[in-house]
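Need tokens for this chain, all 383 residues.
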Amino acid sequence: MSRPIRRLFFCLLLLGCALSVHAVAQTRNNNLAFLTSPGIRGCTLGTRLPLIAARAKGSSAPSRCGKGVVKMVLDSGEKVKVGAKSGGYLTMEDIVGKTPLVRLARMDPEGEKRGNVILCKLEGNNPAGSVKDRPALNMIMAAEERGDIKPGDTLIEATSGNTGIALAMAAAIRGYKMILIMPDNMTEERRATMRVYGAELVSVPKSGGMERARDLALEMEAEGKGLVLNQFGNIDNPDAHFQSTGPEVWNDTDGRVTHFVSSMGTTGTIMGVSRYLKEKNPEVRICGVTPEEGSSIPGIRRWPKEYLPTIFEESRVDQTIEVNQKEAEETSRRLAREEGIFCGISSGGTVAAAIRLSQEVENATIVTIICDRGDRYLSTGVF
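Here are the structure tokens for all 383 residues:
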């Protein structure tokens, strides 16, 4: 190789190296700008890393759309929420939902032999500690959007616990006064938590139960003391699960979910998730959990016909599984000891139902809801 050609070769080599270094630096700067842009800098590392990967595939830069929510459009056209309000930082309402889905590792060996897997959605990871965070926030925000309420107004709701805690939190976030009516046998942990969020509590005798609490809420509304959100008849309750819980279950299982098992109280969770999953795959089986006659399981109800929630549509439930109180409580204890999942009694009931179902089917992906955390039940003596 002649000297001029060698010189030309080395010049081209040096130019190529310089261009490569520039490209790496530019990519780093672009990603740094992406991560520190409004809506991204408030996200967790676990959120930001997938966003970089998505952007590397050709997605757009983040943009704001509606109420300050930051979204990014992927090549596929999918809009991904990546940030929130307040100058790009998250607020409490932004972290409701997106809860983990974990596999039972030890409690269903017979089901595993049949090719089944039971997945538990940990709703206790919500900021106020239960699945009720989703409808509570949605009911308030939807009422705001319709112009039914405005910050400073007084809201009223009958509750057995979790919805009350979630509404107390949501009311605090959005600037409302909250009156909660409940039977006097609800745990002190729940009552104390509601008070911490600033709610006013009204008790009714245990003998009257939730039915009396619901009647009193309507009486107070008629007297002009506030507006009843009415979780039992408010379509914004199941809509919260249609918009969030259902899509999360579908996406987190890559569409492989075959059975969805949920306790039935207000029935908002099972109604919303059923609607979403059935639209994605009509073959998904929806299983509702109810207490056996005579059993008292917080969060799971067998309603008298005249008090049946009006949001409930029987056609959206394919199968009903009854559990007894002893079974629900023992399964709650086992979840803590054997799986490290410390949850409430209704969650023990739904997992017991899921395990029973797993003995009857094969090659199934069974998803169930862990409604709340067990620390709300310590005073009951169950644990």
